[in-house]
Amino acid sequence: MFISAVRPFVAALGWVIGGGSTWALLGTAFLPGTCVTGGQMSVIALATVLYPPGMRSTVVGWALGIGRLGGIAGPLIVGSALGAGFLPRDVFFALAVVLVVASISVLMLERRSRA
């Protein structure tokens, strides 16, 4: 739910960052931040539904660890892209594409576990 909702918010942030008002920027930045945080917190609930009890702690640990690596690498990648001359709007549109891939991955995981 949260990962699916964040895509349009990240794309909207790409539009607003190019020349919108400060309030529009703050409001638009709040929405993807909320969805990403909610998505990270829902990993624990997702693990309890999709994995057997013996694997749950390992799955949660790996998921949270990968999320933290993304939290470290994300600003470095965005900073490098902006330093290379990419427009902020283009960087945020690229991030929206990455989130589409993440959404598809979660949906495939859910369907696979129900089969």
From TrEMBL:
Protein name as catalogued: Major facilitator superfamily (MFS) profile domain-containing protein
Membrane topology: Multi-pass membrane protein
Residue ranges occupied by any Major facilitator superfamily (MFS) profile domain in the UniProt entry: 1-114
Presence of the UniProt keyword Membrane in the record: yes
Organism name: Rhodococcus jostii
Major subcellular location class: membrane
Keywords: Membrane, Transmembrane, Transmembrane helix
Subcellular location: Cell membrane
Membrane-traversing stretches: 23-47, 59-85, 91-109
InterPro entries: MFS_dom, MFS_trans_sf
Protein origin, superkingdom: Bacteria
Keyword Acyltransferase: no
Gene3D superfamilies, alphabetized: MFS general substrate transporter like domains (1.20.1250.20)
